[in-house]
């Protein structure tokens, strides 16, 4: 039984009662979209359990969502781990070959145990919602005949031959988009065969369970899912002919604003004391491998004569001096949804969550991509006319000041940012996604 009539509505509207397990691995940028979906699912009356790294337990339980630890266990704040994971050329390879594929059996066992416990407690699981790195979910869902939905947080994850992404380890792909989809698709398929060689643990597990073990069940798992939730705005990427048939374009899954979310008193006072500042942030992952980003950002703001807010993370690795001018405010974290609309421009690493919040705020952006999907996101907002891009290894005070000056003094960037924001704000990512999930389990 996955739904029942609502007594308060004369039986006209269903109340969600399904138990869904939301599964994700990675940084806060990976956690937040799945957590937002889980919160919305429970708001509708369903039950949500979130399976992820033990590192995120407190954040999940703080908002009242059931938590289950999921292997592999790693600490995103580990300096060496962050350095390797954020390497432009080798970061994605490290993430797949060393952090996820080898541990698929562990994750499978953790999730299978969850199914058994939920069944014994009288609240059986009705389906899964899985992020990109949750490779055990398609295997378990197929083995147990349970529906599952893939979540797609960024355009690069769909690897369309009609809209080829910027992939750091296959840079030729985006440069040859003029060749057309047939040749681009051949390049993509060749690259997928290369990636499949890393996924031997997944294929072996599928074979043991008597499931089809072809490589497409790893690199093209979304095409076999019951649902693919496209959780980014149409301004970043429109629907393409080679998207999965069951793909549903939703928009960014911005969480409902909580009354408890607020800017700190110190930051509020700083914002009210003068003109809109430049905001510098490295999101939730790159912040653990900042290099000289914050030092050079401080110098760039000084060169421009602009006020600045620097978000340096809970474990401050910025290297900034202890004494700073009153034109600069440093803070570990601030809610982007409240801070970005009050910025003159946002300088960030290009993570899709940060990019989405900057697009919603309608402010110009300077993107300094580190790794993974960030170069592709950067290229997309640049094509959109809302941003300029500066390579990480070229980021310095003089270059940042030059790019920021162009952003602030060229009206077209602000105008394009306003137009993009109008689209993003009209999209209903959470509601559209949960509506689709309801259809999946009914």
TL;DR of this structure?
The protein has 442 residues and is of the alpha/beta class. Helices cover 42% and strands 13% of the residues.
Q: Decide which structural class fits the backbone.
A: alpha/beta
* Strand segment count: 15
Q: What spatial form do the alpha-carbon principal axes imply?
A: globular
Give the averaged pLDDT, no decimals: 90
Distance between the termini: 9 Å
Major β-sheet strand ordering: 5-4-3-6-7-8-9
Note the beta-strand portion: 5-15%
The percent of residues in helical segments reads 40-55%
Number of helical stretches of at least 4 residues: 18
Task: Identify the CATH homologous superfamily of the largest domain.
Answer: Glycogen Phosphorylase B
Per the CATH scheme, the topology name of the largest domain is: Rossmann fold
Radius of gyration: 22 Å
Q: Number of folding domains?
A: 2
Second rung of CATH, namely the architecture of the largest domain: 3-Layer(aba) Sandwich
**Poorly predicted runs of 5 or more residues:** 1-14
What oligomeric state best describes the polypeptide chains here? single chain
* Largest sheet entry: 7 strands, parallel
CATH class of the largest domain: Alpha Beta
């Amino acid at each position: 039984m996955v739904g029942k009539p609502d007594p308060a509505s004369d039986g006209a509207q269903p109340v969600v009662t399904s138990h869904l397990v939301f599964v994700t691995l990675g940084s806060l940028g990976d956690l937040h979209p799945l957590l937002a979906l889980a919160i919305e699912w429970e708001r509708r009356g369903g039950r949500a359990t979130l399976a992820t790294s033990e590192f995120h337990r407190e954040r999940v339980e703080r908002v009242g969502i059931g938590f289950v630890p999921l292997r592999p266990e790693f600490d995103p704040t580990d300096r060496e781990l962050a350095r390797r994971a954020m390497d432009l050329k080798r970061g994605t390879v490290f993430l797949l070959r060393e952090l996820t594929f080898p541990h698929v059996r562990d994750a499978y066992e953790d999730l299978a145990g969850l199914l058994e416990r939920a069944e014994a407690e009288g609240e059986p699981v009705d389906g899964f919602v899985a992020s990109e790195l949750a490779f055990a979910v398609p295997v378990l869902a197929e083995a147990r005949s349970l529906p599952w939905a893939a979540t797609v947080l960024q355009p690069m994850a769909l690897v369309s031959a009609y809209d080829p992404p910027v992939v750091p380890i296959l840079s030729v792909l985006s440069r040859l988009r003029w060749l057309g989809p047939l040749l681009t698709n051949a390049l993509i398929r060749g690259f997928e065969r290369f990636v499949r060689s890393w996924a031997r643990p997944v294929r072996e597990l599928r074979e043991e369970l008597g499931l089809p073990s072809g490589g497409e069940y790893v690199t093209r798992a979304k095409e076999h899912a019951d649902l693919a939730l496209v959780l980014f705005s149409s301004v970043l990427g429109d629907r393409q002919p080679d998207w999965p048939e069951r793909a549903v374009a939703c928009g960014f899954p911005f969480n409902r604003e909580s009354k408890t979310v607020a800017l700190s008193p110190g930051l509020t006072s700083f914002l009210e004391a003068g003109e809109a500042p430049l905001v510098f942030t490295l999101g939730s992952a790159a912040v653990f491998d900042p290099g000289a980003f914050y030092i050079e950002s401080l110098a760039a703001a000084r060169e421009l004569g602009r006020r600045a807010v620097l978000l340096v993370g809970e474990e401050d690795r910025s290297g900034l001096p202890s004494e700073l001018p009153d034109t600069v405010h440093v803070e570990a974290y601030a809610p982007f949804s409240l801070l970005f609309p009050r910025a003159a421009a946002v300088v960030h690493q290009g993570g899709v969550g940060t990019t989405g919040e900057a697009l919603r705020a309608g402010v110009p952006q300077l993107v300094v991509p580190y790794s993974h999907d960030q170069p592709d996101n950067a290229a997309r907002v640049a094509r959109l006319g809302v941003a300029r891009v500066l390579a990480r290894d070229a980021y310095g005070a003089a270059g940042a000041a030059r790019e920021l000056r162009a952003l602030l003094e060229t009206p077209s960037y602000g105008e394009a940012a306003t137009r993009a924001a109008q689209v993003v704000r009209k999209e209903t990512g959470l509601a559209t996604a949960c509506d689709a999930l309801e259809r999946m389990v009914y």
